[in-house]
Amino acid sequence: MSSERAKKYAESLRQAANKPIDIDEKVLLRLPDYVDHEKIRRAQHVFRENFFAIFYSMYLGLVAILAIPSILNILIHTKGSSTNFTAYRRYMQTIFHTLSWFRSDLKPGTRAWESIESVRKMHLISSRSAHLANVGIISQKDLVITLFGFMGFTIVTKEKIGLHGTGQDIEDYCHFFRVLGFLTGIKDEYNCCCDNMEETYERLEVIRSEFLRPALKSPPKEFPEMTRFVANGMWCFNPRDTYDVMIFTMKRLVGVPNYWYTEKEIPKGCDRSKMELYKLSTYARFMNWFVAFIHEYLLQFKIFRMFFNMQTLFHEFLITTFPFLAIYSFGWNKAWVTILNDDKKRK
Known about the structure:
The protein is mainly alpha-helical. The protein has helices at 4-15, 37-49, 51-64, 69-78, 84-103, 111-132, 140-156, 158-161, 167-183, 197-217, 223-234, 243-254, 282-296, 302-321, 324-330, 332-335, 342-346. The longest helix is centred in the middle third of the chain and has 22 residues, at 111-132. The mean pLDDT is 94. This is ER-bound oxygenase mpaB/mpaB'/Rubber oxygenase catalytic domain-containing protein.
């Protein structure tokens, strides 16, 4: 950590491990005083323009946070991702909730507002259940790290993800998640997104280097099994993604030692025989190259961003209208995933 401010933030976040997200039984959402709806609309435009890159970074981020024991323990307790099917259902619901936040206004009476209320209530129920079972709580620290999972890689490793936009675009995008963090119960003092972009970068880097990197160097013993459930479940959305490639790419973005790919990433004097890249199969190494080529080269060009955005939209269309891979994997009735009251509308 380069600054005293970053060190103080890291320490405050560690102390926030004992601070719950909600205390009252009733969840009452309100917008923060600093909300800028014009910035939110521009951030939603950034999301549409970079849909493919952002979607992939969220996938990797939400897998990375499972290395945090307190987050993983809650997930194991709720049995939300304890099989391929439950992981499929949970992460598809997460996708649908996230899409609602980017496709409607963040204000009362909208689908996004209803979604955030639903998510916050689920967090409250899960946290109380885990507390009663002596598993832990969903703390301010856990929720901040989860917020990083949704947006951190797109900012601190945006060249490797392939996010393209102006400095104003990045600022608007961070403002969106600052407001979203507030709505989900994160206190401003802990929020990784703040009104100062320099400090926002610092806070995001603190989470990546001080929390995720150590956790991924020595992850919990349940981590491989749980992340494989996630990968197997998400295969129904995008069959191109394989477990080994996903894990390698995610650890590379976090900066875990030996998960280097390009020459400029490899430290001088490194023992290349220990590099994880050379432990992968030929196919996995090719797919690593393919993923890096797409995100770090092809996405520089608008025509390719449009192509991959359309491809991801097509995957979304299939999973909502005819999820044939999920039908094949889990059967007709279990393949359909909805949020809010969409199940009634489908029937």
